[in-house]
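Troubleshooting: if your tokenizer reports a length mismatch, compare your output against this known-good record of 408 residues.
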Amino acid sequence: MQRGKKVKDNKGAAGIDGMGVDEMLPYLRQHKGEFLRSIQEGHYKPKPVRRVEIPKPDGGLRLLGVPTVIDRMLQQAVVQVLEPIFERTFSDSSYGFRPNRSAHQAIKRAKDYYDEGYTQVVDIDLEKYFDTVNHDLLLDMLHEQISDKRVLRLIRAFLKSGVMVNGLVSESIKGTPQGGNLSPLLSNIYLTRFDRMLEERGHRFVRYADDCNIYVKSKRASQRVMDSCKQYLEGKLKLKVNKSKSRTASPLRSKFLGFSLYKMRSKTGIRPHEKSLRRFKARLRELTSRRQARSIEMILLRLRRFTVGWLSYYSISDMKSKIKELNEWLRRRIRQIFWKQWKKVSAKFKNLKKLGVPKGKAWEWSNSRLGYWRISGSWILQTSLKNKYLESIGYDDISKRYEALHCA
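Known-good structure output:
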């Protein structure tokens, strides 16, 4: 029941049976006996996962498989038992989906390698990794640490449970669908052999799930390592390396977990990759569109929810001047929304007066024919809709938040 409570606390969407997390515990209390018996006797059959397609930031779709809440609970129970067993077998250079490890630690390790003179990176991208894991190989790897055949049988049942798309169930002959609680652990187990091969050859590398960067000292070495890794991954692990996305480059230009490194005189630093910043600004533009029919308070709440998460993730980056620039741009866009929502001359006049603008100036600017963006950058809105006022109604100053997180 504890595992069930954990799944309930995590919430999440329903699987193909439509059962929500609030219905799970009552169901388990009612069917506990037969449920446990089916697992112990090896008769339990997980339901197919529900296919969900999530757009990727750089185009394409990420295919997720949403298990039923009962299957998620059972997968969580398996993870809690297996994780301590396999943790001791994992590489120190593996950071994804592991307790007390993070993307921040991974990018800091990459920076250390660069400082040690490993100034070329072999960036390996695995094509549809979670959908291409070989079941037989994975079960052999599990068998090395697990002797209980019931556990192995249950994991095999999850791997073979199938996928439902538009009401039709298709068989799973390979892969560990993203979306289940068990999938991240299984993905790490599968790639541990690759980690060990890299370690045996003396390579410096950082792996976060299926995102692996190997650091070498020359361009010639980078190409040699790329070729040998591709041969191992495709030959031994039966995976497919994405040739168009895998590359050798300088860590100062390549993207890893949304970050890149930079060099300034004798200092190496961490910053968001330019693509990450472009996506950040594009999302801010969407959230502060003047065409949306939402209240200012709701717009600021949605903006805060997004920026808090983004800034927390990128807080280790050096980007003070960039965030300051974006902060000023954001406030101007918010002032533009005010001006658009006031619409009529009478509403503009009334609101400007309420904000302390003298009657004559309020009337003059209310009748201005300047465009929204010009008005939003004018002194009339900057001195009436002051920064402190924007904060008082819910604007989360991203410069202040970044400084607090970066210095923590």
